[in-house]
């Protein structure tokens, strides 16, 4: 390497720091003169939009979890009774179990798929763009339409798409959505198909940031594609992988559209998730107190999960 | 991305809720459903009401008829201005609309919701408005009783009623060697016919709805047909965990697992079931006569294949059919004057056809021109005489093969017409979905245990 190159500061390194100015007592006039009002003017619309549409509803939602309301009369404060009502719901353990099972299945089936696909696609040269488009196609189908499409695939009749194909090999017909044992895996497969495209694109973008020299060095050392992936690719994108894993856990714990449109939570509550319970409280029973109480509990739980996850993976990332 | 959509939808719900609280906080009164007793009502004051259920632009003839009726109503009541909107009943948006104060003053709602909406104080009490408006229609007092409270409050005006019955595919009946003019009258007959249909045609002999509360609705109908009940009279306890429900579920179990005549789809809502029925894949199911419309108009089932008979009778029970229908409810925020105007509109538009030949004929003509079903026989919301008279007026415009409903209509006189559970009907139905699903998807399901479990869940709901 030449002296010129080695003298250049590496990308991202801090520029030489200017000598700190002596602290000056801030007066209103100097604050205004430095553009303080402009800053406020820029920030205000944003603060207002976030405050009104995001933060205030959250605070109000928490308040509603301790109220009983018909949305017409003034709400009545009921303390913790909404929480005790939802926590004593005999369906809650089943919904929690289903939600966790969904999250685990999604992690097993849905998490490695886009990672493998992105790694494979990154190896391609000329056709990567084509494969990116193909992988992303399911994402542009509206979720409800995708579910209705897959409902046909999962038809329990021997003439259903999957049952027909399996029938060629002498298997089935299976009930798919009509059986308590297969309904959740069936929904996870659809959800994976529907969402893996966007995750794949994110991984692909992360992979382009991996420096080619590392691969070249590994290749010179005699590493094959598997060892290159294991020792170069994964360590280089582990930050992205860990964040994606956390996002996926948070998403799958809030799964709603698929079980709602596929089965409505059936058969026999085998696909009832926590969000479906919240929906039922709110829109079937008109019990907004119970619905927000369960929502608050879910939000707290996810907050704790996220904190624990970050603490546990801090070293890795 | 998933995160974004999930979060934003959760936020949207939260937002709807919170805006609701804000709205309540601003306009809350002590009891918004009832006007103060001593309040003076000025019947000549200028009022404006919004009314829902305006047909969409995709149905131009019906929309034109509706708008014409609005003009005619305003001409007859110069102090009332009517603004029509396309708002429809939708349980998912109703709460948000009520919270935001966006509910039309008049909206059509299923009978099933009446009890819960009244109990929550989300619809207006109408007895004073009905007295002042002077209803011209001769309403069936039994139906009015179903939307009334113990202290005489009336919370809705029933404008269409229905009794559940056995809907069957006449073509499949013929193929199976059954008489399409003599549908099964008992559940034993239904079981035998289902076997015959499946053997002869390969189609599902008998199917039932199982999701979205409709499974519970049909289970309730089955329980009543075996002489059982769903709730006690006060609506404080579940009463279905007993013999009649067990008998009905045992019948379903036998048809599903022994006879194999119930097909392979056990996650049907009404729309899905009607779709398969219209395509000739299902022989029989329990439903209401209005399902003729989605079957024949939307799914293009040949009208002559649609047949309907009375609700089957179980065991030694008396013939009993579960009834329901459509009620018109009024916004709880409406002023006394607006309530009177709303009742006048309901009387004019929904019930006028039962008192005025010109209105009946015009409505029938508009419906026929729009390709709608004119008209599906149902249990009358008005007196039998008024209903018969109405049918006579519109006879030249009928496009529904009314003869295919003959046994269903004849049975009205012989059946006990069973109202829906008085308290939280929709919520109870939702709990009962699971019972039907379990019996149809788990071969060894213990019917008594399943019923006990559901009864515990319903007790909890009713005790809330």
Rounded to an integer in angstroms, the radius of gyration calculated over CA atoms of chain B is 23 Å
Main β-sheet of chain A: number of strands, strand sense, barrel status? 2 strands, antiparallel
**What is the helix content of chain A?**
55-70%
Label the structural class of chain A.
mainly alpha
In total, how many domains does the architecture of chain A comprise? 2
Mean pLDDT of chain B: 87
Let me know the largest β-sheet of chain B.
4 strands, mixed
Distance between the termini of chain A: 31 Å
CATH topology of the domain at 165-323 and 406-463 in chain B: D-Maltodextrin-Binding Protein, domain 2
- CATH C-level class of the domain at 165-323 and 406-463 in chain B: Alpha Beta
CATH architecture of the largest domain in chain A: Orthogonal Bundle
The stretches of 5 or more residues of chain B where confidence is low (pLDDT under 50) are 1-30
What's the total helix number of chain A? 16
Run of helices and strands of chain A = HHHEEHHHHHHHHHHHHH
Global outline of chain A: flat
Provide the gyration radius of chain A in Å. Answer: 26 Å
Signal peptide (chain B): 1-23
Keywords (chain B): Signal
InterPro entries (chain B): Bact_solute-bd_prot1, SBP
Protein name (chain B): ABC transporter substrate-binding protein
Write the layout of secondary structure elements.
The complex is a heterodimer of chains A (317) and B (464).
Chain A lengths: L2 H5 L20 H6 L2 H29 L2 E2 L7 E2 L3 H7 L3 H20 L1 H12 L4 H9 L6 H11 L7 H8 L14 H26 L3 H9 L4 H12 L1 H16 L3 H6 L11 H11 L3 H26 L4
Antiparallel strand pairs in A: 1-2
Helix pairs in contact in A: 4-16, 5-10, 5-13, 6-10, 7-10, 13-16, 15-16
Chain B lengths: L1 H26 L19 E5 L8 H17 L3 E5 L6 H10 L5 E5 L3 H6 L7 H7 L7 H6 L10 E7 L1 E5 H6 L11 H15 L2 E3 L7 H12 L17 H16 L11 H9 L3 E6 L4 H7 L7 E5 L9 E11 L5 H14 L7 H13 L14 H11 L11 H5 L5 E3 L6 H17 L5 H17 L1
Parallel strand pairs in B: 1-2, 6-7, 9-10
Antiparallel strand pairs in B: 3-9, 4-9, 5-7, 5-8
Helix pairs in contact in B: 1-3, 2-14, 5-13, 9-10, 9-17, 17-18
Keywords (chain B): Signal
Pfam families (chain B): SBP_bac_1
Protein name (chain B): ABC transporter substrate-binding protein
């Amino acid at each position: 390497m030449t002296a010129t190159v080695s003298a250049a500061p590496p990308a991202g390194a801090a520029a030489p720091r200017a000598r700190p100015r002596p602290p000056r007592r801030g007066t209103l006039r100097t604050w205004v003169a430095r553009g303080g009002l402009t800053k406020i003017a820029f920030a205000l619309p944003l603060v207002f939009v976030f405050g009104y549409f995001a933060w205030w509803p959250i605070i109000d939602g928490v308040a509603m979890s301790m109220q009983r309301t018909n949305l017409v009369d003034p709400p009545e404060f009921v303390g913790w009774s909404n929480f005790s009502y939802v926590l004593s719901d005999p369906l809650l353990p089943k919904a929690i179990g289903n939600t966790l099972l969904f999250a685990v299945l999604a992690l097993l089936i849905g998490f490695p798929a886009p990672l493998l696909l992105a790694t494979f696609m990154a190896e391609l040269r000329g056709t990567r763009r084509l494969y990116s488009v193909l992988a992303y196609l399911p994402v542009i189908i509206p979720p409800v339409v995708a579910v209705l499409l897959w409902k046909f695939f999962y038809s329990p009749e021997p003439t259903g798409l999957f049952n027909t194909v399996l029938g060629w090999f002498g298997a089935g017909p299976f009930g798919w959505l009509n059986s308590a044992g297969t309904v959740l895996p069936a929904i996870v497969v659809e959800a994976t198909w529907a969402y893996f495209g966007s995750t794949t694109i994110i991984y692909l973008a992360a992979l382009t940031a991996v420096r080619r020299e590392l691969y070249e060095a590994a290749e010179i050392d005699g590493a094959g594609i598997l060892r290159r992936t294991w020792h170069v690719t994964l360590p280089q994108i582990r930050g992205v992988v860990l964040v994606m894993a956390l996002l996926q856990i948070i998403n799958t714990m809030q799964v709603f559209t698929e079980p709602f449109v596929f089965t409505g939570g059936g058969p026999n509550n085998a696909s009832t998730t926590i969000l479906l319970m919240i929906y039922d409280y709110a829109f079937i029973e008109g019990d907004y107190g119970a619905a927000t109480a369960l929502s608050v509990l879910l939000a707290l739980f996810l907050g704790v999960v996220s904190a624990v996850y970050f603490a546990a993976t801090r070293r890795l990332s | 991305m998933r995160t974004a959509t999930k979060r934003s939808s959760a936020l949207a719900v939260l937002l709807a809720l919170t805006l609701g609280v804000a709205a309540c906080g601003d306009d809350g009164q002590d009891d918004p459903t009832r006007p103060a007793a001593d309040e003076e009502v000025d019947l000549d004051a200028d009022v404006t009401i919004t009314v829902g259920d305006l047909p969409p632009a995709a149905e131009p003839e019906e929309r034109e008829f509706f708008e014409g009726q609005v003009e005619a109503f305003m001409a007859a009541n110069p102090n009332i201005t009517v603004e029509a909107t396309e708002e429809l009943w939708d349980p998912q948006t109703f709460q948000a609309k009520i919270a935001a104060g966006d509910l039309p003053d008049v909206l059509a709602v299923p009978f099933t919701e009446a009890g819960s909406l009244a109990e929550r104080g989300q619809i207006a009490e109408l007895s004073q408005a009905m007295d002042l408006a002077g209803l011209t229609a001769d309403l069936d007092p039994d139906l009015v009783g179903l939307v009334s409270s113990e202290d005489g409050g009336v919370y809705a005006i029933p404008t269409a009623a229905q009794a559940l019955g056995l809907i069957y595919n006449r073509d499949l009946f013929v193929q199976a060697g059954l008489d399409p003019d003599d549908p099964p009258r008992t559940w034993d007959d239904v079981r035998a016919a289902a076997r015959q249909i499946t053997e002869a045609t390969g189609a599902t002999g008998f199917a039932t709805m199982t999701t979205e509360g409709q499974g519970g609705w049909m289970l309730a109908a089955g329980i009543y047909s075996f002489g059982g009940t769903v709730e006690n009279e006060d609506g404080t306890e579940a009463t279905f965990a007993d013999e009649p429900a067990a008998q009905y579920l045992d019948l379903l179990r036998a048809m599903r697992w022994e006879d194999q005549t119930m097909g392979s789809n056990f996650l049907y809502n009404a729309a899905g079931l009607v779709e398969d029925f219209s395509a000739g894949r299902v022989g029989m199911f329990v439903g209401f006569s209005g399902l003729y419309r989605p079957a024949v108009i939307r799914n293009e089932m040949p009208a002559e294949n649609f047949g309907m008979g009375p609700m089957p009778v179980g065991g030694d029970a008396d013939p009993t059919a579960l009834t329901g229908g459509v009620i018109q409810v009024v916004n709880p925020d409406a002023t006394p004057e607006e309530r009177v105007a709303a009742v006048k509109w309901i009387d004019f538009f929904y019930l006028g056809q039962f008192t005025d030949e010109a209105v009946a004929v015009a409505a029938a003509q508009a419906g026929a021109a729009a390709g709608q079903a004119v008209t599906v026989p149902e249990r009358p919301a008005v007196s039998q005489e008024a209903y018969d008279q109405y049918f006579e007026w519109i006879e030249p415009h009928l496009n529904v093969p009314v003869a295919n409903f003959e046994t269903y209509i004849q049975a009205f006189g012989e059946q006990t017409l069973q109202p829906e559970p008085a308290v939280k009907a929709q919520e109870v139905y939702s709990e009962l979905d699971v019972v039907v699903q379990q019996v149809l998807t788990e071969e060894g399901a213990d019917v008594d245990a399943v019923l006990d479990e559901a009864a515990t869940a319903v007790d909890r709901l009713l005790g809330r």
